[in-house]
Amino acid sequence: MGFEEEYRQKLVTADEAVKVIKSGDWVDYGWCNGTVDALDRALAKRTDELTDVKLRGGILMKMPAVFEREDAGEHFCWNSWHMGGIERKLIQRGCSFYSPIRYSELPRYYREHIQPDDVVMIVTTPMDEHGFFNFGPNASHLMAAIEGAKTVIVEVNKNMPRCLGGFESEVHISKVDYIVEGDNPAIGELPAGGPATEIDKKVAELIVNEIPNGACLQLGIGGMPNAVGALIAESDLKDLGVHTEMYVDAFVDIAKAGKITGAKKNIDRFRQTYAFGAGTKKMYDYLNDNPELMSAPVDYTNDVRVIGQIDNFISINNAVDVDLFGQVSAESSGIRQISGAGGQMDFVMGAYLSNGGKSFICLSSTFTDKTGKTTSRIRPTLIEGSAVTDTRPTTEYIVTEYGMVNLKGLSAWERAEKLISIAHPDFRDELIKEAEKMHIWRRTNK
Asked: Rounded mean pLDDT of the chain?
């Protein structure tokens, strides 16, 4: 039987496909811009028939139809590998919970540790002539999810970019149980953000000065990494490479400015390697059928042993808070979940293993809350309940608009002194007093 005939036999409507889902099932909803759409709407129609359906996914770009009803939590539970704004709203409704991960380990969780999905539903490109459905910019962990699932459903979207890779970037029709042809909605976009602030620019300047020609880049999401990307695009740097967890718009700007060649990469030469991508249509158009890009599973992109093989690896990520011991929280403020651990620790550790590599955690020195109160992001200790994303021995460079410090090898009092030196001046005396109370300050420092 040919692939086209097999396709016709497996083609069903979304309503027919979701009939396989039963109360109590674990159902994978895809990932990021590959989260199902037609299948989600079809499942929402069955709300009254189902209870305790546990969904897995992450980085939602719109509210799933299954959660539009006020009583959705009685029927569906969202278990997120990485939180975003929509998922934070679902937490408040009691419908969503964060699943802590070290992102590089996620495929192994699926293969060895968590209860296998009863149903995996993912968005893919149309089938190619060889019978493969491409995952788009979401290789990440999807093949691992598929391997253990009882039922696999693909929702075809003609607007999904076809992202070339090396392995685990597509699924063959022989492994698919049902095929649904959706309404081909535009792929969910993640805006690059507004113009860089003056603080963003100051932090970016400090970091870009540390990047050599031929460096390999990893950028996190957010204003500061984007500001770094914009400054790199305008710089004289050359022969840069990319090996990153998340592909973002900034890489497109750097590449189109002629700064990225990948010629100096020790592995995957001339390829920009990534686990998933989320950005604007400009980025999706750039990823589509581009042989310069390499979509790969996250247990490869984020493996510290792989990262450590690449010389001059530069990792740039954000943080919520940093305490005087050098602990970094990039995912929560107290018990309030903001995003997720992702692969930040993977890249902090991997960059340190790289010959000439450096990892930078960047943040503004202060933030202003909704009441107008300004607070220091460099704190005596993390807020009670805050998750430690990067442990104190792993933290290397911390950067604010007031400077850059390297914490490697420093004692407790040296760390406190360095971090207070890049805190906002209005908070330094207060931080010194707190450091004294915690016995991590020396009188001679004054």
From this structure: 94
